[in-house]
Amino acid sequence: MSQTELFRVLAALALLLCAAHGTGRLFARFRQPPVIGEILGGLLLGPTVLGQVLPRAEAWLFPSEGPVAFGPSLVYQLGMLLLMFTAGAEMRTVFSRRDGRSVAVIALAGMAVPFVIGLLAVRAIDTDALLGPAGDVTALTLVLACAIAVTSIPVISRIMLDLGIIRTRFARTVLSVAVIEDVILNVIISVALGMVAGGKESGFGLAHSLGITSANASAAYHSVASVAFFALMALVAMVLRRRTGGRSGAADRPLGTVAVRMVVLLAVSASCVYLGVAPMFGAFVVGLLSGMASRGAESASLGQLRGFAAGFFIPVYFATVGLKLDLVHSFDLWFTAGFILVACLAKALSAYAGARMTDRSKGESLDLAVALNARGGPGIVLATVSFDAGIVNASLFTTLVLTAIVTSQIAGWWLERAVSRGVFVTDDAFAPPPRDGSAKVPVNAEGG
């Protein structure tokens, strides 16, 4: 890499980081999800804005290929892995065994029904207008179904934390349901990505070595591989947990534990590539198991890793998402509006029905439906990995990202109004929240 190319890489990363943090903090100041601001920062530097005003500057800073494109692309990939790792680690603090039947029913209704609707909806649209270079209709169908069914843990948990309702029974229900949905949907997404990767002529990995080429055999292999990988990781974590007795082996060296976590994260992600399992799923599982086993110094090291990721890699990832958006040439207004409408109705109505089946009040069921409709980070990750894999084209990629943004905004606005009406009450015992406005919770003024 020449000095000129190195300068362009460093300048591009610096601009992406500044834009992401600047717009992210601006959004946080107005009590909006910072992730949306980070995407907007990248949008300003991409073909939508900078490309229209100074096209040569945009092409010089952010070329689509070559050595200069490789640097930001590597940071983008690491940002996605660390985002999925931290999302998995965060689940150790949100899952609750209380209200188990209620959570199971809401999760089943809120995930299975929208997923089936997504599968059926594909039959009613022209898939040729949505397919990416991979040309795999089955993978496209799975992606669209997941896009309708997915729920965001990072965004909705951040919204509820800022509103001061994170310790309510309502918040625990939302996050517990989201945990179940995200684990299952990540398996499905991994299958879709594995099918596409295994079907390439220059295929790499175990499936290619075994000569698995047909669509049915590929789908079966990647389904089994994803589930087997999850089970194997859980078994390894259980064995290690029993051998160490839950003690931290690096109590006096927390930074060493950060290094170990990164080695494991990268090694497992690399193994996933060979096995035909999506590396983002590997990072998610490592984070999930790592968070469940963390205590003492290990928890401190997890916080250090998460802090660095949130300061550099993850903002660059979301800014790059905005950089990929082209609202001038790859934006279908009517299809996007229709998709958002169908996705919102399918997810919200099914979650509402599931909540009502567990004897929740109409008001609480409606609040649950809107909160679970937020797609946030997982929806954006789904869009980016399917776009990078060639499953969806640029137009559908834009639609999926905008769906994640719009649904997150709706959830934040709705819950803020609910808090202002005194709907929720902080209760460590998870008592049902009153609906008479008698227990208003003050809103956290800092936001973020």
UniProtKB/TrEMBL annotation:
InterPro entries: Cation/H_exchanger_TM, CPA2_transporter, Na+/solute_symporter_sf. Residues 19-418 form the Cation/H+ exchanger transmembrane domain. It comes from the Bacteria. The chain crosses the membrane at residues 6-28, 35-54, 74-91, 103-125, 137-161, 173-199, 219-241, 262-289, 333-355, 391-415. PANTHER family: CATION/H + ANTIPORTER (PTHR32468), K(+)_H(+) ANTIPORTER 1 (PTHR32468:SF0). Pfam families: Na_H_Exchanger. Keywords: Ion transport, Membrane, Transmembrane, Transmembrane helix, Transport. It comes from Streptomyces salyersiae. This is Cation:proton antiporter. It is a multi-pass membrane protein.
